[in-house]
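2 proteins. here.
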Amino acid sequence: MADTYMRADGRRADDLRPIRFQNDIAPHAAGSTLIECGNTRVICGVTIEETVPRWMKEQGVEGGWLTSEYSMLPYSTLTRKPRDISKGKLDGRSSEIQRLIGRAMRAAVDLKKLGPRTLMVDCDVLQADGGTRTAAITGAVVALGLAVKKLMSAGKISENPVVESVAAVSVGIVSGEPMLDLCYVEDVAAEVDMNLVMTGGGQFVEVQGTGEKANFSDAQLTAMLALGRSGIARLLELQRAALGA
């Protein structure tokens, strides 16, 4: 059923939204891209600091570090979202998402090959229409690849520290049907909502799944995982094309 069920935007249940990368959107970043997943748009940028966190120095940990920050710009949603600084603290959702992005990105990198430096990954949502965290991860990998190319071209590292490809996508159950890459109207209506982060080798980095309005069966879980795998395989191809590989 997943390959024939038609959605409100004309997609089949197993279709991704149109994906586009616009590289070098932020010229002062070491690597950057604007990823568009349908109407969701996220700027992903990587900057490089020639130092490592204090805890790494104190514990004598070799190599470098990678961390991330995530934010939704005030005009990214239908109603204005106040900046976190106006509330004096990072909201729980943003904190959870940026930790997810960091974990996903570190799964792609051999930190020892990075050398004693820190890669800062910033993901800023320009427009939110569902799947901002998965778009951020998928786009950040492209920005990372561009930044690493600059490091290698400058002779600062001799080996590519990116040892694995990583991408992310949402899946869910909407009106009883398993669907891939949920937009906002599908996300809010979903009985089950799940985010998958996977490597190019087919291994899971993270699985976030919740029965929002209903429980789900083994068969539904299997169907969602199959949709997610196929979607991530396509996203990995698009990443490679964006990096000119």
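next one coming up
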Amino acid sequence: MLINERSNRSERILHAAMQMLTTARTAPKGRGADTLEVALVTGDDLERLASEMDRLVSEEGKAPFFSRDAGCLRRSEAVILIGSRNVPLGLNCRRCGFTSCGEKPAAVPCVFNNVDAGIAIGSVTAMAAQLHIDNRVMFSAGVAAESLNLMNGVRGICAIPLSCSSKSPFFDR
């Protein structure tokens, strides 16, 4: 049997993405509290996400680079979304700017939730690098994911598009 590398790129990206989802889930978390939400976007939902990025530029005045990044998504095989639920950890650390977790307004994110998401993003991109999968962290696609409510109630979403083409679509943007 002969399998041409070009014939199964999508399958290989999906296999790698599944490993990356596990990497995000098992990343260290403050107090061991799991506030992370991790999802994979493929197929028609990938275009839906890119189209929302374009809509945010044309209808809501977001920066033009949202459309540039939408083009990158369209040249990707899949996108990993990582965000967190706003769940204060009860540390009263004052890192959010308030004296205690009880005084923090519900709309203000717990710093540790965002740090945990950042650690997971770093773990996922490191795994992608080990697997030689081109990727880039994009807050713009995360904003679009929030606008579409792809991860109900999750805030601070970042997106990591994935590609294994001859040239990274994320390099010469």
